[in-house]
Amino acid sequence: MSDDIAVVWGDGEARTPLSAFDAALADAGIHNYNLVTYSSVVPPERSVTTVGQVEAPYEVGTPVGVVRAERESTRPNETVAAGLGWIRAREGGVLMESDAGSAAAVRADLREKLADARRLRDWDWAGDPELAVHEHTVDRTGAVVVAAVYGPLAEAREAADGRR
Amino acid sequence: MSDDIAVVWGDGEARTPLSAFDAALADAGIHNYNLVTYSSVVPPERSVTTVGQVEAPYEVGTPVGVVRAERESTRPNETVAAGLGWIRAREGGVLMESDAGSAAAVRADLREKLADARRLRDWDWAGDPELAVHEHTVDRTGAVVVAAVYGPLAEAREAADGRR
Amino acid sequence: MSDDIAVVWGDGEARTPLSAFDAALADAGIHNYNLVTYSSVVPPERSVTTVGQVEAPYEVGTPVGVVRAERESTRPNETVAAGLGWIRAREGGVLMESDAGSAAAVRADLREKLADARRLRDWDWAGDPELAVHEHTVDRTGAVVVAAVYGPLAEAREAADGRR
Questions:
Q1: With a threshold of 0.90, does the pTM exceed it?
Q2: CATH 3.40.190.120 fits A5-155, yes or no
Q3: Which position among A15, C61, C136, C141 has the lowest Cβ density within 10 Å, counted as fewest Cβ atoms?
Q4: Where exactly are the structural domains of chain A?
């Protein structure tokens, strides 16, 4: 796996919301790691790439840093949507999470959040916001997830070492 | 402490839910670490052992990775129950969390979640699901916790190094 | 930045609660890191210092361990307050989080939680509890945050190495 931050997504159905979430993580290829939630800043040296699904890049049980948006529902026929949006600058980037009852609502919310994030930072912005949004109509108990995979916590340390 | 993932549990009472949770962590022996929540996968080389309580295996303030289930209540005489269940395969293992109003409800929920987790992974499963469930009847403000202690975040990195 | 744990605070306004929280983090100087939540124990060798705001001590996107209290509201003229309290002993220290509708309520809650935390540990306590509380009256959508910044996850490992 390259040094890019991989944006992945998935949906799933199961008998409980937690199991449906597990199924959605499996659909995205990240169900076999110990996910640790990051608050959502992109280091300047890393790109963000939408890949949809990762194929077992790390060993089972590896602690992996992620930014994620998710939504679960136990109501048949309800739509669940989640998404991430990001915007880059020379100094770094910002990721925003959103979940709602439709992909359109997630997109509108992400655009608003990214505009706010941009206003807040006096950075040299490059390019337009990018969005990755996924929606799912619930059969019985369903979940949807979109995640930005930063990679193993261990490598965050190696990167820090390399900069010294 | 061995390389096993230790499953511990405890309950506590205090004047606020957060303090009751702190007391429950103390009862389990993990109140003096900085707990970082993992999403619940077991690496293939590690066993899971129910030990009930750990006795100060790390220095105060060490960041420690855990999977945990908890429940608090401020209603006297209410029962709070939490539990973890896990199932192992040659490729690794899966832990599931649950909390409910009784140990029986937690057990039923965990069995369902583990069956779903198993269906989701094409792994070479070994043995039956194992459960660790703890319940507590609230006196004034009470909490119950069950946690799987993976150990210091630092050692996750050393393990990763060792595998290279 | 010294080895002290820095307590910072801020408030912010934006069009969504998440963006207002981002603005509050910016006000505290910690909006450009990937915050990882710790459960709130202070190692014996570290001091806790109230600094209000940090000035870019780490590179953008660094995973940083924090204990935090926050509160958001979308109701104009509502007051949101958050705070941390801590107490030190020879063996280490304990931080407690609180949020409420006023700084006075946060302070009362923190004192109660710290008294409980102290009762729970048979430690050689030194000094009185210290509190850092911040409140904000919402204009449209507002947030307040108080955080204890432990520093990069990476350095937690170096400290662990150093102790061996």
A1: no
A2: no
A3: A15
A4: 5-155
